[in-house]
Amino acid sequence: MRYPKLIIILGYNGTGKTTLAKKLLLSELKKKDGRGLVVTPDDIEWGTLQEVSGRFPDRIESYVKARKLIYYDGCLLDIQNNFRKGLLIFDDIRAYSTAMTPQDLHNLLIRRRQKEIDIICVGHGFTEVPPKFFTFASEIILFNTKDNISMRKDVLKDFEKMEEAQKRVNEKALNDPYYFEIIKQ
Amino acid sequence: MPLPEENKNTDYSSDLKNIDSLIKEMSEAREDFTPKTDNNSKEIHPPPGQQPAPAYDPVNVSSAPPQELTADQKDRAKRTGKLTAETIDFGIASASSLIAKSNDIKPYKADSEDVETLGDAWSEVAEVYDFNISPWMKLAILYPAIYTPKLIKASNDRRLNVMQNKIAEMEKRMDEVEKEKKLKEETLAV
Lengths: 185, 190
Prior knowledge:
Shape of chain A: globular
Largest interface: A-B, 46 and 32 residues
Strand content of chain A: 15-25%
Order of helices and strands of chain A: EHEEEHEHHEHEHE
Strand content of chain B: under 5%
Oligomer: heterodimer
Structural class of chain B: mainly alpha
């Protein structure tokens, strides 16, 4: 038995962060009764997944395997009320991070243990992910990103360690665009 | 259901060891928070002379565990309550108009104040029991409630129209016969 994970994946377009998120989702789906819900701003990246319509969020709890949910206002509350025991992925969070209600996000993150939900947040850079995610993050997976890390100084548990990791990853990414490091929080 | 495809071209040459251990870690079961019922637990009796603790009574809200409802949940409960009260009122009024063989359901509908009171009562039920009507269910209830009386009225109108057409046809025929009769009489007179 383990505590639910909250993983942040950061990196520019084409570095492989969504592919990595898919890999983690596949691992969840290999479990008996494994389920995943991908919150996405559009239909592009997760085209093969069946969509949970925002108008029928009560169906979320009735399925196994994976579904996608195109972000709509109020979906955080619906997810909190209807999604349990699975992997929740916020893909390309920059597209809707400003629309997220802070209170709903806070409630979702603090209740993930009781709801038995692992959360993965995929973003392009530090400033595009709401600070609340960093407060609760268990791992940060860092791909090439030159985003201003100092904007999240207050919420990163070890800022210096993260700053060094970012420099290291960006240097390595010059030769290997898919290079990443996992930094435990 | 098709699974998301993995991009085989992406070569993770970097933190493979750690990603494998992360996947392994995530494949472990999460802490289980499902409420468990222990059938083997011994029944606890109150000390002699004392009343047993009252059981949870969902109707008596004051004895229920305190639950903070969000503004959105309250709003949803209110809308559900209003819709339930209006739908039931519409259904009963429709049934009453059918019994009375009347096409007008207005006399059988409750006053708007009464419907509002009933709506508030249903909202409370929706809040306590987290009772929610899905949009499909709303449509499934509203369509028959709205259109059944109209279909019955249409069926009645059809019968009435057929009869009116027949009467008109007969009147026309009678006029023609009358004209023919008049013409015959005039011809005979000449």
